[in-house]
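Hey, can you fold this one?
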Amino acid sequence: MRIDPVNPTGALGKVGKAAPAGAKRATSLSDQLEISGDAQAIGKAIEAARAAQTGSPERVEALRRSVQSGTYTVDAPRVAARILDAAAGSSRTDQK
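Sure. Predicted structure:
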C-alpha cells in the first residue's frame, strides 16, 4: 500500500503566497480498496452463517442455561462422526 504525502497548504507555495500561475492543481483524488479472495470468502461464509437457521429460540435458551449451569455434556463420538462426515462430504444428518 502506498500513502502519498499530504500538503495541507493545498495550492499555496509558501505561506501566504499563491502558487505560480503555471502550477498544476490536483482536480480529484480517489482512494482504492482491494479485498482479497480469502477475505471475500470469509465474508460470504459470515453472511451464510447469519442466514442459516439457528434453531428454535427455546432450544437455544435451554442450551444456554445448561452451559451456564455446568450441566451441558458433549457427545464426543457424535461430534467426531459429524466432523468426519463433513470432511468426507457426506450429507448424513442423523440427530438425536
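The helical segments are 37-51, 57-69, 76-88. Let me know if you want another pass with a different chain boundary.
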